[in-house]
Amino acid sequence: MFELTRYDGRRRVRGSIALSGGLSALAAMVIWVYPSFEAEVDLDQLLAAYPDPILQVMGVQTMTSLGGFLSFELYTFGWVIMLGLYLAYSTAGTIADDVDRGRMDVLLSMPLSRRRLIAERFAAMAVPIAGANLLPPVVVVVGARLIDHPLAVADVLAVHLLSIPYLFACAGIGLLASVVFDRAAIAQRVALGVTFVLFLSESLLTGTDAETIGAIAPMRYYDPNAVLLEGRYDLAGAGILVAMTLAFLVASQLWFGRTDIR
Amino acid sequence: MAAIELEGLTKDYGEVRANDGITFAVERGEVFGYLGPNGAGKTTTIRTVLGLLSPTAGTVRLLGRDVTDEAQLLEAKRRLGYLPDDPAFDETATGREILDLHASLKGDERSAALLELFDPPLDREIREYSRGNVQKLGLVTTFMHDPDLVILDEPTSGLDPLLQQRFNEFVRAEREAGLTVFFSSHILSEVRKLCDRVGIIRDGRLVTVEPVESLLNRSGKFVRLHADEPIPIRSLEVDGVHGLESNGGAGPGDGTEYVFTFTGDINALLAAIREYRLVDLSIEEAPLEDVFMRFYGGNATDAPTATEQTTAGTDRGGSGDV
User: Fold this and answer.
1) Are B97 and B69 in contact (CB under 8 A)?
2) Which of A10, A105, A253 to mutate to test the interface with B (most CBs of B within 10 A)?
């Protein structure tokens, strides 16, 4: 078991290290600019200058604490949007690209069921997901100390740990796109589009009559603000994300199990 | 129990019926050639046998297992090697990484010996591989777990002549060791060197299944003859000459260049033209398309069944020009 996961995982290590490094740089930069931001800009006034929808989309609640600042500058932007889209996109490339380029024939000629192939390829996405969350929390905790705005270590860890089921759910969207469309480019575009629309539907519809529509969006169940500002960890939300991920996985397996490999 | 059993296999893509009621069996220990022009439906049959496509109708059994049942298919795949017509591996992986993955999933009994025969550059990434190197790596992955049955889709495409020969010798030795081989080709000469029996497919239908000798006897040679002086037509009326054509002039015999298909005794032909001074003479394997045109007409649906075609090498004049 997990031979394919090990193989895929190894092949994703280098990219994941780069991802971790890039996100750490982003984290360091956001923390580095915060003191001058705080000192020289009237943050409440700045906040008031933004139109409400923008604040809502970006998940801005406050800029007057490092936690609030990081929550949207780093976590909403870097994790919820960028990483979420990246994982949907990247996962969408897995199965569809194998089919597209004719590698699937060789893979499936081995004693490997279609269900297992899907599950193993998907499991390998744990490498970039974990990788992205390895170095940045260290940078955030240490950086916050260095600028004299220390953050609770538990909160920083929680905001990263809780992002893991969120990112898997985004990868699940990509996986489903990857089995439904057998052209990688199309699967990736669809995955990006769907993930982004879900993000917008969740962030824009909150507080409106159509709020319930956002219930299908993974973004609803991962809230960096709640963790960093209130120290509130949404474990039920994490559970829903795990269930979503499994639903995407099973749906992908069922679809792929009965489709013709063209 | 046959290695591969097809019973009324039909695969309908909606707009095309790629396989139409195909029935035949590949016996254990034989080398079976699946022959047909490009686009005839060979790859569709193979990919259905492997469970990559599900049949519209009919049944497929691979090593005695029903391929539409995934648990059974998995059993069969443990003892199967498969080389697609255009094998593809991860572009950014090295050959060695690919071999390691295959070894971990299906075992490795003999990759070391295979690598001496077919030696792809293992430490290079696949994207740097030539078509021939990909094919060599594919051959190693196909045979490395010592399967009971191998399915090869156009296996020698991409191999240079030296390697083709090495491949042929290898397959013959494997056959001696009891391996069953099912391979497709659109090249008759490739099939004749290796196969015990041949199945011919055209436009999605199986035209015939027969021992390779009887097919070869009937397929004939393509002869091109260039003489110094015109040769009288009578001299070329040898048993087994079909569709005689000459260049220029009003008809056969007036020109100096002659082409025809020949199914008779080659010595009789040479004896008949011995007294004429030749500029050039070529005798080639008849192109597969010509074999179809000659014996099955322009349309495979008109084809006689295998049992009706019993005699070989007799005159089948009147079947049309080449």
Assistant:
1) no
2) A105
